[in-house]
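Tip: read the tokens left to right.
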């Protein structure tokens, strides 16, 4: 089981869209995937068809020692499971901040899942902030995926999450995650800026940047409002094609990494 954090301190970059749709495409390929919604806004939870519930969310394992298995729910998609979020999760920031193990707490909570070995991937959708929930995800993950919007501020956000956050946590011995991939999102081929952002990101991170680019499309924005993934809502559209290609590349990169 590999644990992947999808993180970016900047909001609106396609982070939740990527977490939900990449997970759905991996499940479609037969991989058993658990999505962990770490964002109190619970957007990944609602996008996967569940209503945020104060009694069923990550808060209880983190704060009350509820067994994590009891909080996991099946989704309507085969092979895809969800550990939901709810607004209650915002209280975790205050509670864990008072504990000495706040960086390692999430890893402790997820340890039973590793022992069960019934999942291929755990994909964590982190909140767009630099708080305890995001840093807990980085401290727990094996790999980090960073969605980067094809706009100027996307490059700044990438530098922040990689150079200022992950690198500093690694130096302090709080994280061992590697920057496995950078996913370029919201691409509009009509603009010169989008093309220049892609060139700049790839020049600085040639190995880490995925070849697959996620386009800007209305359908990707509409799908969550119908509680559907893009492969259900618009299965023949460009968004579904892109995320299926991303899932294929995601798996292939891991094969290559094991070989090397």
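Filled-in amino acids:
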């Amino acid at each position: 089981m590999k644990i992947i954090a999808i993180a970016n301190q900047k909001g609106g970059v396609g982070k939740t869209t990527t977490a939900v749709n990449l997970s759905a495409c991996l499940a479609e390929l037969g991989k058993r995937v658990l999505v962990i919604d770490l964002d109190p806004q619970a957007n990944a939870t609602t996008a996967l068809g569940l209503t945020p519930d104060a009694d069923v969310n990550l808060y209880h394992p983190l704060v009350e020692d509820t067994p994590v298995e009891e909080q996991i729910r099946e989704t309507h998609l085969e092979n895809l499971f969800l550990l939901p979020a709810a607004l209650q999760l915002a209280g975790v920031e205050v509670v864990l901040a008072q504990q000495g193990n706040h960086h390692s707490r999430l890893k402790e909570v997820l340890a039973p899942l590793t022992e069960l070995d019934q999942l291929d991937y755990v994909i964590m959708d982190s909140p767009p902030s630099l708080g305890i929930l995001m840093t807990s995800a980085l401290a727990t993950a094996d790999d980090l995926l960073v969605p980067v919007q094809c706009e100027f501020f996307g490059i700044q956000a990438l530098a922040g999450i990689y150079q200022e956050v992950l690198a500093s946590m690694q130096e302090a011995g709080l994280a061992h995650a590697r920057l496995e991939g950078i996913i370029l999102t919201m691409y509009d081929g009509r603009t010169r800026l989008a093309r220049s952002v892609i060139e700049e990101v790839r020049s600085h991170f040639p190995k880490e940047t995925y070849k697959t680019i996620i386009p800007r499309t209305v359908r990707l924005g509409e799908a969550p409002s119908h509680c559907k993934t893009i492969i259900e809502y618009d299965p023949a559209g460009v968004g579904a094609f892109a995320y299926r290609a991303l899932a294929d590349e995601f798996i292939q990169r891991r094969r290559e990494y094991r070989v090397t």
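The mean pLDDT is 91. The longest strand covers residues 178-187.
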